[in-house]
Structures are given as C-alpha cells and as structure tokens.
Amino acid sequence: MNLVSLKDELTNNSYPGRGIIIGKTPDGRKAVTAYFIMGRSVNSRNRVFVEDGDGIRTQAYDPSKLSDPSLIIYAPVRVLGNKTIVTNGDQTDTIYQGMDIQLTFEQALRSREFEPDSPNYTPRISGIMHVEDGRFNYAMSILKSNNGDPSSCNRFTFAYENPVPGEAHFIHTYMHDGNPLKSFEGEPKLVEVLGDPDEFITLIWDSLNEENKVSLFVRYIDLETGAFETRIINKNE
What we know:
- The protein has five helices and 13 strands.
- The protein is an alpha+beta fold.
C-alpha cells in the first residue's frame, strides 16, 4: 500500500464525516491517535470535546439547540488498563465492557451494527491501541451496511502489529459529501504521522473543511511509560 498525504486526503474531501487515525511517531517512541468529528446539521455542529477522566466525551456546546442526542453524544475515547479505545459512537462503551470480561475487540463489536440513520446508515468505525512494555499494536474496525442495504451488516477488522515509525492508518465514515452519504470503502489509508503533537493537530485541523469541521482530539502515548499527552481543538470555543 502506498503512503498518501494526510493533508491532501482531508483537503480534497469536504465531508469525510468522522475519522480515526492511529500510528507511531517517526522516532518510534510514541503511539499516536487522532479523532475528528464534522457536521452538516445544526445538531451535529453544536458539539465540543471535553476531557473525561483518561478519555473524552462529546457534549452540546449550546444545550438549548440540542434536538437529538442519540447519535451525537457519546464517549469517543476510553482507557482500559493499557488499552485505548477510540470510536465514532457509543460502541466505545460496548468495546470497553466486552474487553473487560476478556472478549476480543472483534467479539465485543459482534453485538453492534452501523448506525440506524436512514438513508446514510453511517458506519461505526472503531480503533483499539495496546501499549505494553515498550511494544505497541493496534486494530481498526468498520461496521457498515451492504452498499446501503440495511438488511445486511458487513464487518471488517484490520490488525497492525509492530507498526512502522512515521506511519499511521486513517479510516473515516464517508467517501465524500453527498445525499445519501456513501460509506467508506477499502482498507484504512496509509498516511504520515508527525513527531510533535502540536504540529500534527495543526496539520489535521487546518486541512479539514472549514464549514463542516467541529472538533478534533489528538493523543501521544509514550511506549515505555504509558504516559500520554492530549490535545483538543473545538470550533465552538
């Protein structure tokens, strides 16, 4: 798989929807993840990321404008021991609870499908990062309708062992803007990672469509110590 420019991927797509990036810094010392949300409706755009323990959650920026919290208010990031879970919905809790009773990442997601938001049937995208004793591996998942047919759920899991320094994988919910929105297709894209969290979050934020971007989270995890640095940008602040 050829490495593609993350900046170009984002700049040339006005609405990738929600996206997860996971990889390793160029010096090989830190695991990296990023998660962003975008929105076209007032309800979707009326959100911010806030820290919640070791994770984050979404909340309404203006509670008076919140019309339907069911698919937009959730915890995108939770930490379970040496595992960091990143998703685009409340399946974060499903994975957390499943892995807490020794289910695998894939097994935990068997109870979930794509979102019930006809006609888009937004895919559920998820990532799991495992950092232990200086080692790092991760997996990504997408649960999506069968080309827009909600009677069938297609499940794909991609696992990455001993990731290459300076590389990451990027998965997002939609191929591009449209009505209905077309689900992401293919493997997660191979993209670059920067060594500095401030530079990386700036690269992503500046490349996202100005009108549609809402919030962005970036975390760098030290592979030796497990200590992490978090950055958050909210358009509504």
